[in-house]
Amino acid sequence: MKIEGSVALVTGANRGLGKAYTEELLARGAAKVYAAARDTASITDPRVIPLQLDITDPASVAAAAAQAGDVQLLVNNAGIATGAGVLDGEDALRREMETNYLGPVRVSAAFAPILGANGGGAIVNMLSALSWLSLPNTAGYSAAKAAAWAATNALRLALKEQGTLVTAVHVGYVDTDMAAHVDGPKVPPRDVVTQVLDAVEAAQPEVLADETSRRVKAGLSGDLRNLYPALSA
């Protein structure tokens, strides 16, 4: 689909990667950009339309869909990272699943008929290299992103007939507040967004936005111990 002249909605648009999406969409000539966040006061760019949206709240999602019936491109970007390990209890794990898995599925389901009515359009799901790899302090996040990856594949097939492109985005650490604690290579948000919007315009179903995501995906077909060296110790 063409970005120029389109109507887009970005979740988690108040900062970081979400804000980079809104800025690049506008730079590419999007006709309208809904910037969705739980607190619309955090949306300060006068060029966008603030939209109240809590992706964990079905009523909030339904209200957003009723307000934004002209959307052609949905960017499921909102997410959290609790740092929960697999043995840290269910509360944090449920928060990860609710926000990083059920949230995007809920929003996609609400906007799928809208996208279909508006010509098909596209959905972008921000996933992660951690969809395929789990670390001690990312177990909750990895599990939720793995579930979101599976849902994205299913969504792609479910919406094919109505002409909706579903693009999955895998990336390692992005230079945003969420990864501020990480001491290592980080991808600039604009680099990710540029690749993603190029892929949408080229009707590509997947973006591996950095070397980390490419390496981890390639490693899935090899010996598990290559991805988890600790298993060889």
UniProtKB/TrEMBL annotation:
On whether Transmembrane is a keyword of this UniProt record, the answer is no
According to its UniProt record, what is one Pfam family this protein matches?
adh_short
InterPro entries, per the entry: NAD(P)-bd_dom_sf (IPR036291), SDR_fam (IPR002347)
> What GO MF terms are annotated?
oxidoreductase activity
Keyword vocabulary terms for this entry: Oxidoreductase
Write down the superkingdom of origin.
Bacteria
Give the family from UniProt.
Belongs to the short-chain dehydrogenases/reductases (SDR) family.
List the NCBIfam families: PRK08264.1-5 (NF006119)
**What is the recorded name of this protein?**
Short-chain dehydrogenase
Q: Which organism is it from?
A: Catellatospora bangladeshensis
